[in-house]
Amino acid sequence: MVEAWRITGQAEIDSYVGSRVELAVQLINSLATPHAHGRGVTPPPPGADRLAAVVAAQERLTVHPPASVLTPADADRLAGIAARLRPLFAAGDHLLDAAAGLNDLLVRHHAVPNLHGSPANPLGLSFHRPDADPVDAWAADMGTALAMVIGVGQSARLGACQAERCSLVFYDTTRNASRRFCDLSCQNRAKASAYRARRRA
């Protein structure tokens, strides 16, 4: 089985980077998306509901970030970070502006390559300092991972659903970066809508 972050024939994105991009996708879709699958959605309100959404988003990942005790205030900060990361997906002609915002986020959350480890655990590369609080750590890791995807010329893989009234984002791991929809249900909705339009014409 080919891991989700390996892109055949393209510059390779390693597991750590791929997992942090997926974390960004989950947080954006949970906390900063106004439409999903043809319906308007209301992001979770601040407090316990928003924290529950963050925990649920984390549980949907195949590779989890380091265990952290998050608070409702942390979840509120992560919602703001998700909103700031969202413009990087399907940025198109606005990529330079989106990248400027990403650079600001990297500085604000003290992103820095750092080897973490202990006598009992092997050293591993992270993008945050060992003493970073959980929100800064997640923001630095997600931001750097997205910067690495963009930096190797793969920004087209940061996509947004093209179905009507769906603004969910995704990380495209197809061979030729041809994905256009968040999932099969939106793809089928778009096909049905196009078919009806042709019939009317």
UniProtKB/TrEMBL annotation:
Know the name of this protein?
A: CGNR zinc finger domain-containing protein
- What top-level branch of life does the organism fall under? Bacteria
User: What organism, scientifically named, is this protein from?
Assistant: Nonomuraea salmonea
Question: What InterPro entries does UniProt report for this protein, alphabetically?
Answer: ABATE, ABATE_dom_sf, Znf_CGNR
Residue intervals of the Zinc finger CGNR domain: 157-199
Indicate the transmembrane segments per the record. Answer: none
Residue stretches in coiled coil = none
Q: Per the record, a Pfam family? A: zf-CGNR
Annotated PANTHER family: BLL6575 PROTEIN
